Amino acid sequence: MTLLLISPDYASHLLPLATIATAWRDRGHRVVVATGPATADIVAGFGFERVHLQLGRGSNPGVIRADEQPRDEADSLRGFFAATREGMVPTLAYQAKERLTDLMWDPVAAGRATLRIVADLRPEAILIDHLAFSARLALDAAGHDYADVVLGHPSALPVRDELYGFPPAWPDAFRPTGAELSALRELCERVSRNFTREWNRATAQLDAAATPTASAFATHGPRVFYNYPAQLRPEASVDGAVFLGSTRRVEPADAEVEAWLADAVPFVYVSFGSFLSVRADVLRRVADALRALGVRAAIASGSTPVAELGEIPGGWLVRPYLPQVRLLGAAAAAVTHGGNNSVTEALGACVPLLVLPFSTDQFAGAAAIEAARVGLSLDPNVADGSAIADAVASLLDGRAVDAATLEAIAADQRAAPGPERAYRSLTSARIAEASSDAVR
Questions:
Q1: What is the number of other CB atoms lying within 10 angstroms of the CB of residue 71?
Q2: What angle do CA 246, 2, 17 make, to 5 degrees?
Q3: What pLDDT does residue 429 have?
Q4: May I ask the CATH class of domain 2-247+416-439?
Q5: Pfam families annotated for this entry (predicted)?
Q6: Residues whose CB is less than 8 angstroms from the CB of residue 276 and which lie 6 or more positions away in sequence, other chains included
């Protein structure tokens, strides 16, 4: 059996998708990843094959730096980073305006390349990142069966009255005005119309007989997998979708990390992911808060130079990149920007979260975490060291945490890991389809 995995050339997208595919690899099936060159080492590390597919102008092998991107992408990234300093609504507005270039890049060429890969490989199953719009529209136009993997809060696939780019819920620390929300909604509606127009234009070039969609952001594959815990499930989700919980990968052994973990003193894990680690000012405030609390810390500094975090206590572990899943397996609490990998991997390890959201679906995710009482959220542009220290302290002593809910999420994922859920779902679907074909 051949499984085709389609992913943008970003580590944060490829890692969970590749982890899902290990359920096929470990059963002896062939796994081929269609992506760009920046993540080739990640593909090889999983033992998969790679075919070239460019789905965007930028890339991210693990830690992203604007000066390592093509000029247009570098300018876009710098604009995004600047917007995060202005606040929630300016950031969401900036991202909305960039949507056509960062989510649907050269759709006709990318779509044709996708269909050539499918024709060459003839895979029995296809897993694709939901945000790979240029590839998905081609699969839809050609009538291919595939599983659509939503790597984010479920509202990344809007249903019912949801609007892409407009969070359905806000964390308590954020209070946008009515005027701000009205302007943001109007912008997101306009972008959605333009995006749908571009989707339909590209689809028509691939198949003139294709039926236009009324909303490109709301389209999805025949099967939908949410990389998200069902216990944080919002009311609005696709009927019949499978909630994977998380995709907690097995990471290569790291001797320094294992030696550090041998000291059983509780610690707080900190990471702002591959993009938002550029916010050195916020990372410094987090480091200051943890120093003031006197707690041990493991900090993945990403694109922030370690020296900008201030004096590093002797018992801390600080590097640009750390094995996140391994460390979360032993952490007492975590501080994160609210990226999907950080959130799902922490909850899968029964680790409470302090979320400092900056962009996209991070706000909705932070609101869901607060509502379930498995963590707290603060505004990264407003919260000072004292507020961060107080929040972390309340996570460590359990005041802010519903321990039963947190344990239920972790136990559910231990009982049925995300990759196994995906494999069983697709395998059951294939058996059902084969039986139906035999009857016909």
A1: 9
A2: 20
A3: 66
A4: alpha beta
A5: UDPGT
A6: 84, 302, 337, 339, 358, 359
